[in-house]
Amino acid sequence: MKLRSSLLVLFVLLFAFSAHAQDQFRGSGFFIGDPTPSKAEPRYDAFVRVVKQRPNSTNIFIDYHEPIWSSGAYDAQWRKNATWHAEQLALLCSAEYLNRLDAEGRPNLTPMVSIGLTDDYHAYQLNLSASDPNYGKYSEAAAVRMMNSIANGKYDVNDPATGRKRVWPAIFDAFRNKGFRKLYLRIGWEQNGNWYGWQVRSESSRAAYVAAWRHVATLAHNYAIAYGMTIETVWSPTASYTNYGIPEESSYPGDSYVDIIAPTAYSPIWNATRSADKTAYYDWGSEQKVSLSEWLSRPVNRRHLWDYPAADYWNPQRGWGIPAAISFAISQGKPFGFSETGTGNAGVTARGGGPVDEGDYPLYLARRLASGVHRGMQLRMVEVWAQPTGSDGSTFLSGSRPQEATGWKEFGTIMAAVQQQKNVAKGKLAYARSTQSGFPARYVTDGNTATRWSSVPGDDKQWIYVDLGQRYPTARVRLAWDAAHASEYSIQTSSNGATWTTLYKTSAGDGGVDDIRSLSGFGRYVRVFAHKRGTQLKNYSLREIEVYP
């Protein structure tokens, strides 16, 4: 027993060191799936090893396939399902396994408890006789009745006289009794899709959804006050799928009820853009007709549909995608996150299209989120799902999806830097076209304005660039010039060090400190290219180059 404990401590320390060697994104989350420790611990460890981030939240699903309430002593129901999940997650957090405990010995891995607003027993009419032709078929009327029952308090307290049952408080009890003091409560997620009983597809289902959502949120907030907990409600439409034409914002329960706006979003493309004549696919980059395989292979097309999931040739900005979700959160003054996101598909037909090894999507998300933060968005959490990809069903944790794995690792580093407002150039390698003896290029990233780089006297055309070590968005560059400044210069980025994109150019440089903001670049390398000297001095001299994502 002592040997096992010693090995456990060493194992935990090694993983902690591995994660913290990289800057940590406070909003990092990971869906571990079944929280049974024997199954969840290896997945958690794999995430830490591959992504180099220590997740702080994980999704827990109260099984909506089960009845919300059943009279049988041993029948499945939501209260019992919540109790089992809370027990297993608390055990996983214990010193015996992950040792995710706070100073008072309570679990500090936050559950994102996902609860539906219907169960399949009612919404899919499983309460009918098996011989009934409607058995197993979705009924909007039945779903609306159940959501209205929730809104009217049917599942708030035990009251045999009125047939009311205590469900919602019992779910909260389950987690509180196991030491959890903070929950994210994700209520009726992806209501703008067509796969859950609480789908919003008409005015009656919209009104019932909003009423039920508000009621559960109010119960949660009151419960948290009564028991000294933090329960933050999460509104979570899908930002990756077309809907019935009902605006997503119309099913928003309201600022008094919603604490966090955190949609779901995934990389697979379900709606590749057809050409005007429907004979091929419209390429958003070349504006030409291409085959489906060509269309899916080009990041510009996938990015367009990630932004506008219902776009077509005639309506290029149709669909409530990630930019719309971020803008809505900012307009409502609500923290933002992703309650689910991932890079997985099993082929064009079965699970949506895209590369088997999708390395672009995590970096796309990082750029959109970084931009949102610069616009005033509060970023709360991003929960990554390791989705299977390709015909072999492997995930990015398997070692066989290197681009995805790298993408998620870089994503965590980027978001940590955005949260910290970190100068990602500090301490990084720098290279220059020319260097005067005693004033090397590395001085521009040493964090010390008493040192400087200087080019050799002569040619006006000089450059110096910083290797950031990985890809980052570039939103801000701060230059501290010495006396020998440039009057005309450009700021450029590159992903390969060979092909450069100009983000900014000026011909009015006056030395001192240039703090250039609102840039929109992306790459591993950031270059300052000096075109013309601003003084009679024959060289250029920079004290610091700072880069912020």
TrEMBL record:
Residue ranges of domain GH26 in the record: 5-333
InterPro entries: FA58C, Galactose-bd-like_sf, GH, GH26_dom
Active site residues per record: 190, 294
SUPFAM superfamilies: (Trans)glycosidases, Galactose-binding domain-like
A Pfam family this chain is assigned to: Glyco_hydro_26
Keywords, in A-Z order: Glycosidase, Hydrolase, Signal
Domain F5/8 type C: 406-549
Matching Gene3D superfamilies: Galactose-binding domain-like (2.60.120.260), Glycosidases (3.20.20.80)
Keyword Hydrolase: yes
Signal peptide coordinates: 1-21
GO molecular function list: hydrolase activity, hydrolyzing O-glycosyl compounds
Family note: Belongs to the glycosyl hydrolase 26 family.
Protein name listed in UniProt: F5/8 type C domain-containing protein
Source organism of the structure: Steroidobacter agaridevorans
